């Protein structure tokens, strides 16, 4: 298996962050899908095709793609949307339980359920809020997800990773999961080893992103089917039982808090700037400065709702302009465009205050320069892509560790 490529299907592909990270190791994307439901022009898919070619790329609503049209693969990857994963009803047919239509988690579930040759590995990403949602039953959505993967024969390891804590140029916190099918040697190894040792030393995540603290693991038994978990999980609890690190195997969850351990080089916002090459439209007009100052500043004021109801509003100030000697704040989808905003990045350059360019936003996510540049795609749209993207360096490091494990074990 020395040079055998690991076959990957990439769902919710966006502009290809997973692919860029995985192709640094011996992975081959055999099929990809990107579909934006709310827009007629499929901009992200166009960028993906321009960079990686049209072959084996699908720009069709994934919910309508028959499983038989997706080629067999060893690894299924994707950053799926954070939605309500609750299960509404039990069906009395062989299909068992099904979640709500339009919730894309159940599309992943369907593919895993219907594939005769199931992928042996999963590598998925989401916002870390998933571990705590919904507010009325903290952690319920994640419990539904874990139990549904347990039913399909997978063990799941997860970790919340903030890219900047491992030297990358953006403070972007996301939860990453790896699923191991019970037929893999890795799954068999997890069964035999101490779960704490796996999570802090030997596991894929701990090897890719070391932690410096041992943890006292809490055990949670996932009991009941998906409807029962939907209705009953953590009904009384104010806090989610799921911490930033954990593993689920055979319906048992082991979870605790870890602290990153990293003393390597660090990239900061100042390192990625395109100074000297920036065109005028990114500079803030002096007349607009008061607006930026107001939005970035602290506020205590009385505001009115549309119905005329008055309430006290308060918020703290943001660093303005952004500090160049630290990793940047998280890029959001509304990063582009000229209008003043509390959340857009602003840097001080030799020619005055300015917003970040599309290339700088790409660099903060560790994409190649001009990856999203394409005729007909505006700078605002390019910024939107980066607000939705992931930090490629995180995918690369986890992908590398996972590859070594697959090569050596399976």
Blueprint (SSEs and pairs):
Elements: E1 6-11, H1 17-22, E2 27-33, H2 43-52, E3 57-58, E4 75-79, E5 87-90, E6 97-99, H3 105-114, E7 121-127, H4 140-151, E8 154-162, E9 173-181, H5 185-192, H6 195-202, H7 204-208, E10 218-221, H8 226-232, E11 245-249, E12 252-256, H9 289-296, E13 299-304, E14 310-315, E15 346-349, E16 352-355, H10 358-364, H11 379-388, H12 392-409
Parallel strand pairs: 1-2, 1-4, 2-3, 4-7
Antiparallel strand pairs: 5-6, 7-9, 8-9, 8-11, 10-12, 11-12, 13-14, 15-16
Q: Could you please describe the fold and organization of this structure?
A:
The chain is an alpha/beta fold. It has two domains: 6-262 and 391-409, 3-Layer(aba) Sandwich (Rossmann fold); 269-380, no CATH class. It is built from twelve helices and 16 strands. The strands form four sheets. Strands 3-2-1-4-7-9-8-11-12-10 form a ten-stranded mixed β-sheet, with helices on both faces. Strands 5-6 form a two-stranded antiparallel ribbon. Strands 13-14 form a two-stranded antiparallel ribbon. The radius of gyration is 22 Å and the shape is globular. The termini are close together. Mean pLDDT is 92; it is low at 90-97.
Brief digest:
By secondary structure, the protein is α/β, with parallel strands linked by helices. Helices cover 27% and strands 21% of the residues. It has helices at 17-22, 43-52, 105-114, 140-151, 185-192, 195-202, 204-208, 226-232, 289-296, 358-364, 379-388, 392-409; strands at 6-11, 27-33, 57-58, 75-79, 87-90, 97-99, 121-127, 154-162, 173-181, 218-221, 245-249, 252-256, 299-304, 310-315, 346-349, 352-355.
């Amino acid at each position: 298996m020395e040079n055998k490529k690991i076959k990957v299907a990439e769902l919710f592909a966006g502009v290809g962050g997973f692919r860029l990270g995985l192709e640094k190791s011996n992975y081959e994307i055999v099929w990809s899908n990107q579909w934006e439901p709310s827009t007629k022009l499929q901009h992200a898919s166009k960028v993906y095709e321009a960079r990686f070619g049209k072959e084996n790329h699908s720009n069709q609503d994934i919910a309508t793609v028959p499983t038989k049209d997706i080629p067999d693969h060893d690894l299924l990857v994707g950053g799926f949307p954070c939605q309500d994963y609750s299960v509404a009803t039990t069906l009395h047919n062989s299909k068992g339980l099904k979640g709500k239509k339009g919730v894309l988690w159940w599309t992943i579930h369907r593919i895993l359920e219907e594939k005769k040759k199931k992928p042996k590995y999963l590598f998925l990403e989401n916002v870390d809020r998933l571990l705590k949602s919904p507010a009325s039953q903290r952690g319920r959505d994640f419990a539904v997800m874990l139990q549904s993967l347990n039913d399909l024969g997978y063990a799941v390891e997860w970790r919340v990773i903030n890219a900047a804590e491992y030297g990358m140029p953006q403070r972007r916190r996301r939860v990453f999961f790896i699923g191991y099918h019970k037929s893999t040697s890795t799954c068999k190894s997890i069964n035999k080893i101490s779960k704490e040792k796996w999570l802090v030393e030997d596991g894929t995540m701990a090897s890719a992103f070391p932690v410096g603290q041992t943890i006292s693991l809490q055990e949670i038994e996932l009991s009941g089917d998906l409807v029962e978990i939907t209705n009953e999980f953590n009904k009384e609890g104010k806090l989610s039982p799921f911490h930033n690190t954990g593993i689920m195997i055979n319906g048992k969850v082991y979870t605790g808090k870890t602290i990153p351990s990293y003393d390597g080089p660090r990239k900061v916002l100042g390192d990625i700037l395109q100074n000297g090459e920036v065109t005028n439209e990114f500079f803030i007009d002096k007349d607009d400065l008061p607006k930026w100052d107001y939005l970035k500043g602290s506020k205590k004021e009385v505001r009115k709702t549309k119905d005329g109801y008055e309430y006290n509003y308060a918020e703290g100030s943001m660093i303005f302009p952004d500090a160049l000697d630290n990793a940047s704040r998280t890029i959001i989808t509304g990063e582009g465009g000229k209008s003043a905003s509390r959340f857009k990045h602003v840097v001080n350059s030799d020619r005055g205050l300015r917003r970040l360019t599309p290339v700088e936003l790409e660099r903060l996510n560790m994409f190649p320069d001009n990856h999203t540049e394409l005729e007909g795609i505006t700078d605002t749209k390019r910024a939107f892509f980066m607000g939705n993207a992931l930090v490629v360096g995180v995918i690369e490091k986890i992908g590398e560790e996972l590859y070594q494990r697959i090569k050596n074990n399976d």
